[in-house]
Design a protein that fits this description.
Blueprint lengths: L1 E5 L5 H10 L3 E5 L6 E5 L2 E9 H9 L3 H8 L6 E6 L2 H10 L5 H17 L3 E4 L5 H13 L15 H10 L6 H11 L2 H6 L2 H5 L5 H13 L2 H4 L6 H4 L6
Parallel strand pairs: 1-2, 4-5, 5-6
Antiparallel strand pairs: 1-3, 3-4
Length: 239
């Protein structure tokens, strides 16, 4: 069995040394995608690592699902490894004067989206446990016990883009955007729907419905004067 660690990982050398101490062949190199590549027996698994802090930042910048979408086009199964403790991060947010609930809103929202997308997730509470986790995965693969990770490979469709466009509206997200598309069939019908029709969709309600109408009907020059607070924009991840 062999574990490849991406050179761009901040702790790559330290983790490589720890893995070697466990008796596993390891190589630090440039990986085309992901942070770790595990080869054990006849199986190969690609792993993308994100700390809880990385997740919050990548959600705010909307990079997370772009990165995961790139992984779905690889030739091997992949998994997302989440490292760190969301409780500790929420405490840090409180110390910095930021809303500690933001961490949980983002973390739970991501977990929901990943489950619905069929992307397997490994949660490691401490970064120090990453080498041990990789070792255990490699060991199981070498003995023929392949982790239940599946490839989520499919071509990107126009429907995906429709859902993504709608999902960027504050208060929606992928799940609620998909519910709206399934009810109204086209973006044009959503834009022309009444408050009552939109609010009738499960999970929408009057508040989100009103904002959707504002997005589609407010003239551009007028919309430029309407400020959306950063905190409120993150309602996108509340499910």
């Amino acid at each position: 069995m062999k574990i490849f660690v991406d050179k761009r990982e901040d702790l790559s050398k330290r983790w490589a040394e720890k893995i070697k101490e466990m008796g596993v062949e390891v190589e630090v190199s440039w990986l085309e995608a992901g942070d770790f590549l595990i080869k054990g027996g006849e199986s190969t698994i690609l792993i993308e690592r994100k700390s809880v802090s990385d997740l919050v930042n990548s959600v705010i910048s909307k990079r997370l699902f772009e990165q995961l979408d790139a992984l779905t086009h690889q030739e091997v199964p992949f998994s997302l490894m989440i490292t760190g403790d969301p409780i500790e991060l929420s405490r840090r947010f409180r110390t910095m004067g930021r809303d500690p609930n933001l961490v949980w809103n983002v973390f739970l929202g991501i977990q929901n989206e990943l489950a619905l997308s069929g992307i397997p997730t490994i949660v490691v509470p401490e970064e120090a446990l990453v080498p041990r986790t990789l070792y255990l995965l490699a060991k199981k693969m070498e003995t023929g016990v392949r982790p239940s990770l599946r490839v989520v490979k499919r071509s990107r469709t126009l429907a995906d883009e429709q859902i993504e466009v709608l999902g960027t509206i504050r208060g929606l997200g992928i799940v609620k955007a998909k519910a709206l598309i399934e009810r109204f069939k086209t973006l044009r019908r959503i834009a022309n729907a009444s408050l009552a029709e939109l609010a009738d969709v499960r999970g929408i309600g009057n508040k989100i419905a009103q904002h959707v109408i504002e997005v589609f009907t407010t003239p551009y020059e007028e919309a430029r004067e309407i400020k959306l607070s950063r905190k409120k924009s993150l309602i996108y991840w509340e499910q």
